[in-house]
Design a protein that fits this description.
This protein is an alpha/beta fold. Helix content is 38%, strand content 22%. Helix 1 packs across helix 6 and helix 2 packs across helix 3.
């Protein structure tokens, strides 16, 4: 399944590798990969595979789940579709509380003690999704963990999730997508080591130029 999802993401350009012309993140870090899982929403066959896989992941890893909560904004649609498949209630968590109306940060009904799974599109350093988990916990939710479409598998993200006591299940990973990209001819096979070097230490830009020898 992880390779199928990887192949699907590559086919629609949701995950796009460009190791020789890196993208620049808002933080200034240069990256060989551009990831936009919102594109899956406009590709019906890929969207169906992803939502069915997310639903299967919830069933397999969080069988006691009572409600899904999407991250704002990228996780909302995936949470809604997955909840529909599973016949579960859903809601979402804003990046901050509204300054008008009821001033909610959590949208949708959430009962104290309700067993909750967070739906996220991708995880890099883990900061934003952990903030969502903390908001839900403060509201009394029993957060079982996270399901996500893609994870970079960066050490910083893994360490943060571990420190927060949060389990994450991703449909595919940076490593898998990189391997499939090489197998399918999107990148050269010898680019994989460069990509993994970026994953292991994003602040080290030595991967941008292939190492000699």
């Amino acid at each position: 399944m992880d390779k199928l999802i990887a192949k699907s993401l590559l086919s629609i350009g949701a995950v796009f590798f460009r190791p020789d012309e890196p993208f620049t993140w808002a933080s200034g870090i240069k990256s060989p990969v551009y990831c936009d899982n919102r594109l899956t929403l406009t590709a019906p066959s890929v969207r169906l595979d992803i939502e069915n896989a997310l639903a299967a992941a919830v069933k397999a890893h969080y069988p006691d789940c009572e409600v899904l909560m999407g991250t704002s904004t990228a996780g909302i649609a995936h949470a809604a579709i997955t909840a529909h498949i599973l016949s579960l209630p859903m809601g979402y968590v804003r990046s901050g509380a509204k300054i008008h109306g009821r001033q909610n940060q959590i949208e949708g009904k959430l009962k104290k003690g309700q067993k909750t799974v967070v739906v996220e599109d991708l995880i890099s350093t883990g900061g934003s999704v952990i903030e969502v988990v903390e908001v839900l916990r403060e509201a009394g939710a029993d957060v079982l963990g996270i399901v996500s479409i893609f994870t970079y598998g960066m050490k910083k993200g893994l360490d943060r999730l571990d420190a927060a006591g949060v389990k994450n299940v991703s449909l595919t990973s940076f490593d898998t997508v990189a391997q499939v990209a090489a197998d399918e001819g999107y990148i050269a096979a010898d680019d994989i080591k460069r990509l993994i070097s970026f994953r292991d230490n994003p602040s080290d830009e030595s991967w941008i130029k292939p190492r000699k020898g």
